[in-house]
Amino acid sequence: MTDRLNVTADVREDDEFDERLTTEIVLSHFGKHTLDELQLSDHMPSVRALGCVLAYLRSTQMNGLERLNHLNVYSDVQYMRLDINTRRNLELLETMRSKEKRGSLLGVLDRTSTAMGKRLIRSWIEQPLIQPAPIIARLNAVEELVKNTVLRSEVREALTGVYDLERLMTRIIYGSANARELRSLCLTIGAVRPIKEALKGAGASLLSQLEQDMDPLQDMESLLSSAIVDDPPFSVREGGMIREGYNPDLDELKLDLKDGKGIILRVEAQEREKTGIKNLKVGYNRVFGYYIEISRSYTGEIPPHYIRKQTLANAERYITQELKDLETRVLTANERSVALEYQLFTELRSAVAAQLTRIQKTAAAVAQLDVLVSFAEVSARRKYCRPEISTDGELKITGGRHPVVESLSDAPFVPNNTLLDDRDNRIAMITGPNMAGKSTYMRQTALIVLMTQIGCFVPASEANITIVDSIFTRVGASDDLASGQSTFMVEMSEVAYILNNATRHSLLIFDEIGRGTSTFDGMSIARAVVEYVANPKKLGAKALFATHYHELTVLEDELSCVKNYNIAVKKRGDDITFLRRIVRGPADDSYGIEVAKLAGIPNDVVTRGKEILKGLVEAGEGALLRPTISAEELPEDSGQLSFENAALSALAQELKELDVNTLTPIEALQTLYALVKKAQNL
Q1: CA 61 to CA 29: how far, in whole Å?
Q2: Is the pLDDT of residue 644 over 60?
Q3: Helix (H) and strand (E) counts for the chain?
């Protein structure tokens, strides 16, 4: 359906909602005679569920069901499968830590101008397509918008004047919209017209289709612009909403409100002319209302239909039926005006609600165009390329970049290539130190594939992307204390889910497997997983596999579809520099101790770690580690600075004797410079 429904309904017995009853409810609601017309003849469980939902809504919502006027038969085969772990690990809509939009793929791609577009782009990111035709249609539209900067600018500017048509229509249908919202609808209709005009020359089929789907709604705009004032009040019960000239009766009532004094003067002139009494006056007080006052000298000339109401010292006051009618008219003009305005407003709201289908179709077209323009704007600014859809199972990316990392950093992003296929490059085994960029590289590959399948350009020099039916990721793990699962158990559960649900057309991202148990157990499990994924008779999926188990790199010699890659590192003495470049071949070292040093581990620990590593290497594989020095032999306070050295002691003494309060700024700098030179010469 056009709207997603999250409904909690009472569970009922089968005979209360049998197929005949639910079918009747569904057909009646959509105005059809057979389920074939709704493409539901082969979906009886869906018909039963839909019938129950409609019955529930009828009994609880009472109105507004006319918004549900179209059915889309949803199937899993239409969209890429993305489980909760993949959505979280790839940070599609929000970051893992702060749960913020900034730092996510959505934060990079969302340059939409309307609320409708912002909702739709989230849906597109969560539901990538897997059919080539609609993907190519989106890419064609984005390409035209990228190349035609004038068209893109015109559409973006016009979209800024578009209000949330979907939310406006919801409020209109439910009868809760006020005059301001009808005015917003009117302005939005006016903004859609230049968008439709701009798209008339578009070459992409999807853009042409969106132009056709946009109803100019000129009749609605004309009606609303003639009826609603430019700046209507918030309340619909206090008047001031309807424009002058829209309704003659309302105009007359408003005239009575504005010209009450003038009406009295006109009545006074008319009565003087009729009676010939020159000093006749029409007045008003709260006791008698409107009255006619005549001096006693004209008592004999009083018309018979005048009714005496009050006697004064020098005059008499009278009323007439005509004057009482006028009083009622003037005094109730405001009340009747407000009531009539509300009546006219509700008629307008109902007239707009009757055009729901036309407006919904236009809203859907505007939302799609907004997302496509957003894709084009980001692609043009960040120099993304158009990906080509591969039909031979090859996933080849040249100069690929991570869209989010690139957008958040001012430093140039180091691009990398990716090659996966169904033959000799099914699995890329990636080794290298932590912090070098393995996770970034694997995630950027997954994001480039996903961006292709939502119809967006991708951050790369070239990209030839095969369609995947799902992306699975196993990245990091932590204890799940609520369910009593350890880190390793969580990791294994994720791996099990992937292996049980992936197909040969899936893309798998494994960032370390087997770290939460013993070395031999972990390495054995990791190897078994690689062999299972690589075997086309068991799974045969494409995979990026990052590991610190260097022993697994021998699989390249044993399995023809496995290729080794590593993150290039430059080492100078004890210091290392991450080059962020993916190169062929296995890594020569994990550089774990060097990374620990970069993280701020104390020098004593780093030094001791190197001694232990040296002993382990010399002992040989499988031998027990015998430390070169026992814990008792370690210095007790090797991290403290000692001044036993004579030169150091002299320098320390010089520092102690220095009185900084007596130094001028120039002298302080000169003294500091001299002390530094002495320290460097020690």
Answers
A1: 15
A2: no
A3: 25, 15
